[in-house]
Design brief:
By secondary structure, the chain is α+β, with helices and mostly antiparallel strands. It folds into 2 domains: about 1-35, Ubiquitin Ligase Nedd4, Chain: W (Single Sheet), CATH 2.20.70; about 40-185, Alpha-Beta Complex (Nucleoside Triphosphate Pyrophosphohydrolase), CATH 3.90.79. It contains 2 helices and 12 strands; from the N terminus they run βββββββαβββαββ. Strands 4, 5, 6, 7, 8, 9, 10, 11 and 12 form a 9-stranded mixed sheet that branches. Strand 2 and strand 3 form a beta hairpin. The structure holds zinc ion.
Amino acid sequence: MQYCLQCGHKAEVKIPATDNMPRLVCPSCGYIHYENPKIICGALVVFEDKVLLCRRAIEPQYGLWTIPAGFMENGETIAEGAARECFEEADAVAINPSLYCIYDIPDIGQIYIIYLADLKDGAFGIGSESLDSALFSEDDIPWDTIAFEAVKRTLTCYFEDRKKFSTLNEFPVHQDMIGKDQSIKRY
Ligand SMILES: [Zn+2]
C-alpha cells in the first residue's frame, strides 16, 4: 500500500487525464507522484597506469569492487557529483574530469554518467561507504568481484581505449544501453 506524500491518503495507480502513463495518483488531493529515471554520477580516476577502485561497505553489492559512483544530488552538476563521490568513497580528489561513458539502464530506470579524471597527487584513503580502496593496474583488476555491469563496461572501455589511443584527449565518449540480461548494446 502506498500513501500520498502530500496528504497521507491512500494513493492509487491510474493514468491521469493529461497523461498517457500509469502513475501513483492521490484520489483525495490529486497529487501525482511522478517517478523518473535516476542519474548515477561517477568517475574512473586514474593515477599513472592504475585506476582507483573501492570495495563497497553498503548494499547493494556489499563487498564488491566499484569505481566511485552514486546518485546525483540536487544542486550539483554531474561533474561535481562525480567528484563528491570520489571524496566520499575514497578520500580522493578527482581533477581534470572529462565525460567518458553514458549508460542507459531502462529496466531499472537508471542512467550512469561516468567521467574520466586524474587522481590528485595519487592520494586516497578509505571513505565511510567503503571497506577498502586501492589502485589497480590492468592485470590486477578483480573482474570476478566487480559490483555493477556499468562499472565492468567502463573499465573494459578504458583498457581498450588505452591500447587504441596514445593520449586521453583522443578517447571517445561511449554511450551504451545495458539490458535486462546485462547485455550491452552499443549506440
Ligand atoms: Zn493526497
